[in-house]
Design goal:
The complex is a heterodimer of chains A (293) and B (193).
Chain A: H1 3-9, H2 13-30, H3 42-60, E1 65-67, E2 77-82, H4 91-99, E3 112-117, E4 141-146, H5 155-158, E5 165-167, E6 173-175, H6 185-189, E7 195-197, E8 212-214, E9 226-228, H7 233-236, H8 243-247, E10 253-257, H9 264-271, E11 273-275, E12 287-291
Parallel strand pairs in A: 1-8, 2-12
Antiparallel strand pairs in A: 2-10, 3-4, 5-6, 7-9, 11-12
Chain B: H1 2-21, H2 66-69, E1 111-112, E2 118-119, H3 124-129, H4 133-140, E3 147-149, E4 155-157, H5 160-163
Antiparallel strand pairs in B: 1-2, 3-4
């Protein structure tokens, strides 16, 4: 056969076969291979977590456990906060810091308590998270703590280029720190300012590490990853209340299973005046604010 | 076509796989009986059973009251106490109420309802609920007040008196924890990384 004829046909049988094989191999490696934590074979995951536990234990000097507790079937978590009760004491902020091993310096807070004017109502433009007071609540003010709203229609997970963040079946928006590349697209996408970036190596004072951790939650984070509230995934997937719920001195914070008609959350939704933040964005938060009085 | 079939099979098989891989037992969805009292319509059935609460917050050495009161003749006359209990200032509808409206004159170690039925201090929520019915209903449903325990299991409640001093029930103001640090402006210098 003449070479010119070969060029006209464009591709030999051999070239076609190798291209097909390469495409198939590529598909197998990317689309079918293990991608995320729970797609991984269990024994590989166990090895990974064992190594992680060993490293943390060595680094922090206490026996650290890293759980991989999966979502509980038939459970979708929801949270409710009583705006009429919150007095802005910030107990929740610091309970969260201790429970979730947040960096003390640089300071990372997953919960921001916003002080607002009663006259203006819920108005983010005039909200102040840096208020100082001898005693709270202050006259003519009310307080709206804001953390991750755990949206159903999540702007943050949609922009993640690596798939490091996702919504788990129990409704918690989680981040796999090993997959996060620190591009911070999710922080730009989040309308609630709920995601926080580790600009430098997080510091936790010696002896203050909470050794009861979860892979997707409060395990020590490296520099250069984004982190956020997970509703204390290490506690709630084990059946407990989040730390902020238990610490709140006025009992303004409520947590439960949205799918259980007998839960506190359902009682609140059915009996109280309930609102979500920025409903016009259609993010469908599972974090509700209500007026208990 | 075959890919579609394989995909369909994978979708069908995935729930089974995920269940098989989930060896961890799920916490049983047990709820404290007290929580079930509140019917979805908001009606509360007769509170015959007790709710699990921590012991009432008595002042040191004040209980049992009968230690002092046993030998005393009850004086039912409404008056300002001058000999004892002077530290108590009543700011709780004080125009219409005084000690013996809630405390029992016969048995000093209990309270009593408006009907005269004695109520232990551990069940004082029944007394409070006589006037504050709406709050009582919310409290039983777990919406008013703080709870501890499991969101899907056993819970402990606090008594009204754990947070509200019964003699001055208005919630006391608290000192807030320190404010977050304001973000500092990053000033790049030579050699900064």
């Amino acid at each position: 056969m003449e070479p010119t004829a070969k060029q006209e046909r464009g591709m030999t049988r051999r070239q076609f076969a190798s291209c097909t094989a390469a495409a198939a191999a590529g598909f197998l490696m990317t689309a079918c291979g293990p991608k995320r934590l729970f797609d991984m074979p269990r024994d590989r995951l166990r090895t990974l977590i064992r190594d992680m536990e060993r490293d943390y234990t060595e680094k922090y000097g206490t026996a650290v456990t890293v759980a991989d507790t999966p979502p509980i079937p038939g459970v979708k978590f929801a949270y409710a906060l009583d705006v009429s009760r919150c007095i802005g004491c910030r107990r929740c902020v610091y309970a969260c810091v201790e429970e979730n091993n947040l960096s003390r310096d640089p300071q990372v807070h997953w919960i921001r308590v916003l002080e607002m004017d009663k006259e203006k109502g819920i108005d983010f433009a005039h909200a102040d998270p840096y208020y100082e007071a001898d005693k709270v609540p202050r006259e003519k003010h009310f307080y709206v703590p804001v953390a991750c709203q755990q949206c159903d229609n999540t702007p943050c997970t949609k922009v993640c280029p690596t798939g490091a963040t996702r919504v788990d079946p129990d409704g918690i928006v989680v981040i796999d720190y090993d997959w996060c590349i620190g591009c911070r697209y999710c922080m730009a996408a989040c309308p609630y300012g709920a995601r926080h970036f580790n600009w430098s190596e997080p510091t936790i004072p010696e002896g203050q590490l909470n050794p009861n951790t979860h892979y997707l939650g409060n395990r020590p984070r490296p520099k250069g990853v984004v982190e956020k509230c997970t509703w204390c995934i290490q506690r709630t997937r084990a059946g407990r209340y989040p730390a902020c719920v238990e610490v709140c001195p006025v009992g303004a914070r409520k947590f439960g299973n949205l799918l259980d008609p007998e839960s506190e959350i359902r009682y609140i939704i059915e009996h109280k005046r309930v609102l979500v933040l920025k409903p016009e964005l259609n993010t469908m938060p599972k974090f509700f604010y209500f007026y208990g009085t | 076509m075959t890919r579609a079939v394989v995909f369909a099979l994978a979708v069908l098989a995935s729930p089974a796989l995920s269940l098989a891989g989930d060896a961890r037992p799920t916490p049983a969805a047990v709820t404290a009986p007290a929580e079930r009292v509140a019917a979805p319509e908001g009606r509360v059935t007769v509170p015959a059973e007790r709710v699990e609460v921590p012991p009432p917050p008595f002042s040191e050495g004040i209980f049992p009251c009968s230690n002092c009161h046993a030998g005393m003749e009850p004086n039912r006359e409404r008056r300002v106490l001058t000999d004892m209990h002077t530290e108590i200032t009543l700011r709780h509808d004080e125009a219409h109420r005084w000690c013996l409206d809630c405390h029992d004159a016969q048995n000093r170690d209990v309270l009593h309802l408006a009907s005269g039925e004695p109520v232990k201090f551990e069940e004082s929520y029944r007394l409070c609920g006589q006037c504050h019915g709406e709050k009582y209903r919310d409290w039983r449903a777990g919406v008013h007040g703080r709870r501890a325990g499991s969101w899907n299991g056993h819970k402990t409640y606090l008594l009204c008196a754990h947070c509200h001093n019964p003699h001055q029930p208005r919630f006391q103001a608290l000192t807030p924890k320190p404010a977050p640090k304001r973000p500092t402006r990053f000033i790049p210098s030579k050699g900064a990384r």
